[in-house]
Amino acid sequence: MNRIDQKMQDLKAKHQSAFIGFLTAGDPDIPTCLACLKQMEDNGCDIIEIGLPFSDPIAEGPLIQAANLRALTHGITTDDVMEMVKTFRLQSDIPLLFLLYYNQIFTYGIEKFLKACHDAGIDGLIIPDLPLEHREEIVPYADAYDIDIISLVTPVSKQRKQEIVSNSKGFLYCVTSTGVTGERSSFKTDLKAFIDELNQYTDTPKALGFGISTPEQIKEMKNYADGIIVGSAIVRRIEAITTQNKTPEDVGEFVKTLSDACHA
């Protein structure tokens, strides 16, 4: 049982949902990113999702695309991110995931990448563009290094939902709406019905993500989801460090409003 599984189990015993926060590695630079990681943990994140900078992040909206560009402009590499995670691991045992794209793994070398993740202290991977048919290229190495491959499922997955969830580990990333990431004021999907349907297929914890940005949204969704994922709203506060002279502590204060809502 790795850190993700243990955390989800511990929270379930306390009848709490996991608060999962996202940032982009190296945005706007490594030292600031490390400070934001610490603030996120100190202010209530149960799990942290780290975006591995990529030139074509197809699942991301404008905010996270801009964060990728800021990191890449500073020349950050995959190896730099691995070293950053190792540094953070010296002071933290929080579950950590990478969000990245299949080509990044393939280019690095599949087994080499999974071993590097294990050595750095990464517990899971979210790969939005990984076709179900290609999971087996990665899963054997992930299993060998005790890394969860997090499955994504959407309300429109229809006939494939059961097949997708049967392969799930860690938690299911339940996408709230179609399109790219970004803050939303409302959601067209009946999310409770979506989660209820998935509960028929698997006991794997379900976390809702894409567009969630306010304590009010979280207070409602935590009643039927095992986890809540917030990305763009946090990334917007990190962007303000460079555009509005904000600080990592300001990011932490915002995260606390969200985690408090999730754990209430």
Automatic annotation (TrEMBL):
Which pathway does this polypeptide act in? Amino-acid biosynthesis; L-tryptophan biosynthesis; L-tryptophan from chorismate: step 5/5
**Which GO terms label this protein's molecular function in UniProt?**
tryptophan synthase activity
Its keywords, alphabetically, are: Amino-acid biosynthesis, Aromatic amino acid biosynthesis, Lyase, Tryptophan biosynthesis
Does the record's keyword annotation contain Amino-acid biosynthesis? Answer: yes
GO terms under cellular component: cytosol
Looking at the record's lineage, which domain of life comes first? Bacteria
What is annotated as the active site? 49 (proton acceptor), 60 (proton acceptor)
Q: What is catalysed by this protein?
A: (1S,2R)-1-C-(indol-3-yl)glycerol 3-phosphate + L-serine = D-glyceraldehyde 3-phosphate + L-tryptophan + H2O
Which CDD domains does UniProt cross-reference here?
Answer: Tryptophan_synthase_alpha
**Coiled-coil annotation: which residues?**
none
Q: What class of enzyme is it?
A: lyase
Instruction: Name the Enzyme Commission number(s) assigned to this protein.
Output: 4.2.1.20
UniProt key word Lyase: yes
Record family assignment? Belongs to the TrpA family.
Functionally, this protein is described as follows: The alpha subunit is responsible for the aldol cleavage of indoleglycerol phosphate to indole and glyceraldehyde 3-phosphate.
Describe the protein's quaternary organization and the partners it interacts with.
Answer: Tetramer of two alpha and two beta chains.
Q: Which named protein is this?
A: Tryptophan synthase alpha chain
Q: Which organism is it from?
A: [Eubacterium] hominis
Gene name of the record? trpA
